[in-house]
Design goal:
The complex is a heterodimer of chains A (about 625) and B (about 500). Chain A has helices at about 15-30, 45-50, 55-60, 90-105, 120-130, 160-165, 175-185, 200-215, 235-240, 245-255, 265, 280-285, 290-310, 320-355, 360-370, 375-385, 390-405, 410-425, 430-440, 450-460, 480-490, 520-530, 535-540, 560-565, 575-590, 605-610, and strands at about 35-40, 65-70, 80-85, 110-115, 135-140, 145-150, 150-155, 190-195, 225-230, 260, 275, 545-550, 565-570, 595-600. Chain A is an alpha/beta fold and about 625 residues long. Chain B has helices spanning about 5-15, 25-55, 70-80, 120-125, 155-165, 175-190, 190-205, 210-215, 220-230, 235-245, 250-255, 265-275, 280-310, 315-320, 330-340, 355-360, 365-375, 380-390, 405-415, 420-425, 430-440, 445-455, 460-465, 475-480. The radius of gyration of chain B is 38 Å and the shape is elongated. The two termini of chain B are about 60 Å apart. Residues about 1-85 and about 95-150 of chain B have low confidence and may be disordered. Classes of the chains: A alpha/beta (about 625), B mainly alpha (about 500). Chain A: Keywords: Protein transport, Transport.
Chain lengths: ~625, ~500
């Protein structure tokens, strides 16, 4: 790749131990129920489980049949049932039904529920209410962290987002703290912890308490610093269309637990193929962080190289040929397979994106980010809604409009909402209520906004950078925090300059040079300043809750500089592949290595689908 | 991001026991801290035995050194319990105060960093190869084996034990004061699981009037409780709660939501009718009214059309059998449906597109887009044409559209309109460059050829000759132009 990388980036710690740990813990728990048993697995735990164990591991520990939890009566004949579930009330209720149904004919079985990553009292209360407390044994499988790649670790808890930010339910705070604690005890001690957001702060506190409660072992740190960030600090970034390869693949094909299923249109056969997307895939690892416009060129170059390698066969004698087949051919074939898959995927992406006028969509997004031609943007969105183009996409644009403009004018809000309900169904009243609650789609509050903003603008203008600001600034009065943040942090590069996407100059390349993701910019700034000093305005615009603390090992940090440059970033509420790409870029530029820990990988569709109110 | 700072602060301070928020200037917090410390110590003493029990009870078959149980012992042996100090400081910022926003918390001499000297340590450091790493999960007895024992834990200890997932009884908290203290401590601990545990206990032991009253001043707990009630589908209590707290609109929406679980369309319609008396905002009420009116109408249309379809007499239903019921579809889908199957009906019928437009106050543009798509789908090009003409009755020569012609072309093309239809509309695109691009994309040769002629660009025209079908009218036209001596080509 053409990036000017610093070559002294430190090595990442080995996270495969997390998988082994989780597997051993699970086996231990299964052994707690000796003898043959049937295992029921919560649907969304199947993929994570697949990453750490396989069926034969389970069979070895006397698991007879495997079922997916489907909330239907069970047909198992086994006299021992084991349920491996998330601590969800509905699932527990279903188990109660199963047990109670067995009680009617007087059938006696042993039941075990394994909650992961932890149990909740509310679930136990259900067992008690349903009269089966004591009939089942309960355990916890502390499977907090699943490494998806060398530098990505996921809690695989997508519901963290809506539970915490929409419902205001803090049930996962301790979970986040425990996950951090696990990393701390394996790869710590950390020197510094930075963070921003209410939940980050609470998670930090929870972790700190667990450090105090737990045992400490003096050991060599492998992770230097930690940055915690709440998803609601930056909603703009996950709502933008992704244009970096990995993000695009996620937007279009939905990567699930690090694995994607390419359909017949990609494989150009009648079969679908499941592919693991990670650094093991040599083709993928070279294009994952690239802007999509570079991917084709790269792939065709790669194809030519491959051809040359194959062509070497010609003119070989038997002995050379033998060596070629045994040494190189397998690798070439593998590369060939991957290459054709990614070319197929790229073509399919191109087709889909041309069909939906992607260019125009991106233009609208960029205008919203810049704050230009808002009227045109609104009518574009309106047309989108009128034509009943994707329900989620329309919602995404509405939210982007609202956040960047700090709310819609009441007139616009009403009209767009009415048209949305007409196009996609009145039951989306509930969706709008959710979005309002979360602050993603709101009406501008007349009057109040003006005065608050006036004072903010006043402060901004007094700042040293104010010299650069033009007169247009005075019309900012009604504008949003996003605009102010964007100016303050230079998130939107000037459009008149050419941006060479092949040689990115900053993190904006992940959005075609139009926008530097706020989340990653904050991380960059805080690391650079070693704290929040000088970012007072920014944190004020973000409603505060920032912190920066130092543990004692940070003091004598000399001599382990390498560790100091290994930074663990924990996103509470999910992060996107684009953000990960941006951080990887930042790491290469500054000689950091980032480890991204997230409650789940998210993107605009997942984020908004979690907020739809029109399902039972 | 959206919440104002004031709100946010209210939120943090909403607890009556301010001492347990992050704002820890009060000495009550330091007391809490002290007692936590004390508890920690007690716990450590109490549990030392337990831990050992755990290790002994692990009857692990097969795996020798490197197995979990082995490493648990290692962990226990090598952990240093003495001289412990807090490793990281507690954060005490609530307001985003500027002065504190730097990393000024550098507490010196906290936990041990890398040990200096000591060969053993270096040795084990060298062994960081993960296969021999001495780290292991904290194995404990499965929770199911804990005896539920009643004990004399203080409120602070109780909350802490709850946080650690340990058995504890709440029954001794009988006075309202005790209960609320417990709740506030749980809130201060920021552990939703613990907050819920306490709330479930309070729900069981307090009458709802008292519970609701106390929740009102505790927003965090209130939100947990609301979430719990909706997860357990305790609709009745949730509605009562909303009403008791004067959250009329929330209650209305919640009730409205119930319609989603009613599958019978007639019952659903009746339910929606009842919803009209709920205290929605004026704006939302209008939407719910529309929802009711729409479903009522869909039911009528569905009955009629199903008969027509079965009767086999109506041509359009034979030619284009319906793929789905129209029930519960959005308004625009219904309009599209009516434009498709009932286009020419007089305005008086329920299924007439014009009637629907009128009843639901559909905007001109929206109506236009939908009708255009529906008629194009049917390839009723005359209807399509008429849509534009009727805009400008007097002029008639000129087509007018509330939608940009580029969009119109797009819609027509997506409904596979033939070139001769497309080119009429491509020609109407204002922007010359865009027109040319569209013409090329949709193979509207005449437009391309005429444009090049007007540009007097011989080269482009020559190049385009290769793109038209050999021996076609277009090729002849190009040849005629190229050989026309009256044109002054610029190249």
């Amino acid at each position: 790749m053409a990036h000017s990388a610093r070559r002294d980036s430190p090595e990442l710690p080995d996270f495969s131990i997390l998988k082994r740990l989780a597997r051993d813990q699970l086996i231990y728990l299964l052994e707690q129920l000796p003898g043959k048993k049937d295992l029921f697995i919560e649907a969304d735990l199947m993929s994570p489980l697949d990453r750490i164990a396989n069926v034969s591991t389970l069979k070895q520990h006397e698991v007879d049949k495997l079922y997916k939890v489907e909330h239907k009566p069970v047909i198992s004949t086994s006299d021992q049932l084991c349920f491996l579930i998330r601590p969800r009330i509905q699932t527990v209720k279903w188990i109660c039904d199963v047990v109670n149904a067995d009680k009617v004919p007087g059938k006696s079985r042993r039941y075990k529920i394994i909650f992961t990553p932890q149990k909740f009292y509310a679930c136990e209360a259900v067992l008690e209410e349903q009269g089966i407390f004591g009939d089942v044994t309960i355990d916890e499988w502390p499977f907090y962290l699943l490494p998806l790649d060398d530098d990505i670790i996921s809690l695989e808890l997508p519901e963290f987002f809506q539970d915490n930010f929409l419902a205001g339910d803090q049930r996962w705070v301790r979970t986040a703290g425990s996950a951090l604690h696990l990393l701390y005890s394996l790869y710590g001690p950390f020197s510094k912890v930075y963070g921003i957001g209410r939940c980050s702060k609470m998670a930090y506190e929870s972790w700190r308490e667990q450090v105090e409660e737990g045992e400490q072992k003096a050991r060599q740190a492998e992770i230097g610093n930690v940055f915690l960030i709440d998803r609601d600090v930056d909603f703009v970034t996950p709502l933008c269309s992704q244009v970096v390869y990995e993000g695009l693949v996620d937007d279009i094909f939905r990567i699930k637990c690090g694995c994607v299923e390419f359909g017949p249109d990609v494989t150009s056969s009648d079969k679908s193929v499941k592919v693991m997307l990670n650094s093991q895939d040599k083709v993928f690892s070279e294009i994952r962080n690239e802007h999509f416009s570079n991917v084709f060129g790269f792939l065709s170059q790669k194809a030519r190289n491959l051809q040359t390698a194959y062509d070497k066969r010609r003119g070989m004698d038997i002995k050379q040929m033998k060596a070629f087949v045994s040494e190189e051919l397998k690798g070439l074939k593998q590369e060939h397979r991957l290459l054709s898959l990614h070319i197929g995927a790229s073509e399919s992406i191109m087709k889909k994106k041309t069909k939906q006028d992607f260019q125009e969509l991106l233009k609208t997004e960029h205008l919203l980010l810049e704050g230009f031609e808002i009227r045109e943007c609104i009518s574009y969105i309106e047309e989108h809604i009128n034509r009943q183009v994707s329900m989620v996409e329309s919602l995404r644009l509405l939210c982007l409009l609202s956040i960047t403009e700090n709310g819609l004018l009441p007139k616009d809000y009403r009209s767009l909402k009415a048209q949305y309900l007409q196009s996609y169904g009145v039951d989306h009243l509930l969706t709008f209520s959710n979005l309002r609650q979360l602050g993603l789609l709101v009406e501008q509050q007349p009057g109040e906004t003006l005065t608050v903003m006036e004072s903010k603008v006043g402060k901004l203008v007094n700042d040293k950078t104010a010299g650069k600001l033009t007169d247009a600034f005075s019309s900012l009065a009604k504008k949003s925090n996003f605009r102010a943040l964007s100016r303050k942090l230079n998130l939107v590069p000037k459009m008149d300059e050419e941006y060479d996407l092949r040689v990115p100059r900053d993190m904006a390349y992940i959005f075609s040079g139009a926008y530097i993701p706020l989340s990653c910019k904050l991380i960059e700034q805080v690391l650079e300043r070693d704290g929040w000093m000088g970012l007072e305005e920014v944190t004020r615009l973000l409603n505060g809750h920032e912190f920066a603390v130092t543990g004692s090992s940070g003091v004598d940090s000399k001599g382990k500089n390498d560790t100091q440059r290994i930074i663990l970033v924990m996103f509470l509420g999910g992060c996107t592949y684009s953000e990960i790409s941006a951080l990887r870029f930042l790491g290469r530029e500054k000689g950091y290595k980032f480890i991204v820990v997230t409650t789940a990988i998210t993107n605009s569709s997942r984020l908004l689908e979690a907020l739809l109110g029109n399902h039972v | 991001m959206i919440k104002s700072k004031v709100d946010e602060e209210d939120y943090w301070h909403s607890s009556k026991f301010k001492a347990f928020t992050f704002d820890d200037e009060d000495d009550e917090l330091s007391r809490l801290k002290e007692s936590r410390q004390a508890v920690n110590n007690i716990r450590r003493l109490v549990e030392e035995d337990d831990d050992e029990d755990d290790v002994e009870k692990v009857s692990w078959s097969g795996e020798p050194v490197g197995s979990i149980s082995w490493s648990v012992k290692e962990t226990a042996a090598s952990s240093q319990r003495a001289d412990r100090e807090p490793a990281f400081p507690k954060i005490s910022t609530v307001t985003p105060s500027i002065s504190r926003s730097q990393s000024g918390y550098s507490l010196s001499s906290l936990f041990k960093g890398k040990p200096k000297g000591g060969n053993f340590q270096t040795f084990s450091d060298a062994l960081t190869d993960s296969s021999v790493r001495l780290y292991a999960p904290e194995l404990r007895k499965p929770k199911s084996e804990y005896k539920d024992y009643v004990s004399d834990w203080s409120p602070e200890e109780t909350v802490q034990r709850l946080q650690q997932g340990k058995a504890v009884s709440l029954e001794k908290f009988r006075t309202l004061q005790d209960k609320l203290l417990l709740l506030d401590l749980a809130i201060a601990a920021h552990d939703g699981n613990v907050i819920m545990a306490v709330l479930i206990y309070l729900k069981r032991t307090l009458c709802k009037e008292v519970l609701f009253r106390e929740l009102e001043s505790r927003q965090t707990a209130l939100r947990h409780f609301i979430h719990y009630l909706s997860e357990t589908q305790n609709q009745r209590l949730l509605l009562e709660l909303h009403r008791a707290l004067g959250r009329a609109e929330d209650a209305a929406l919640l009730q409205y939501k119930e319609h989603l679980s009613i599958t019978d369309e007639n019952k659903r319609r009746d339910f929606l009718k009842n919803c009209l008396s709920l205290p929605f905002s004026a704006e939302d009420l209008a939407h719910v009214q529309d929802h009711y009116t729409l479903l009522e109408r869909q039911i009528i249309i569905e009955v009629t059309d199903r008969q027509a379809e079965r009767g086999g007499k109506v041509e359009i239903f034979q030619k284009f059998p319906r793929k789905a019921l129209i029930l519960n579809m959005p308004l625009i889908t219904t309009l599209y449906y009516c434009c498709f199957y009932h286009y020419a009906e007089p305005e008086g019928t329920f299924s007439s597109p014009l009637n629907i437009r009128q009843t639901f106050k559909i905007s001109e543009k929206q109506y236009f887009v939908t009708a255009l798509a529906a008629r194009a789908k049917l390839k009723a090009w005359l209807d399509v044409d008429a849509l534009f003409a009727s805009r400008n009755w007097l002029g008639f020569t000129r087509k007018k559209s509330p939608l940009s012609f580029q969009r119109v072309v797009d819609i027509l093309q997506k409904n596979s309109a033939p070139t001769h239809v497309l080119q009429d509309y491509v020609a109407l695109v204002d922007d010359g460059e865009l027109r040319l691009t569209l013409a090329q994309k949709h193979k509207c040769h005449n437009i391309v050829i005429n444009t090049y002629r007007d540009m007097k660009d011989r080269q482009l025209l020559l190049g385009y000759r290769g793109k038209v079908v050999r021996g076609s009218v277009e090729e002849r036209k190009i040849d005629d132009l190229l050989s026309n001596p009256q044109i002054r080509w610029k190249n």
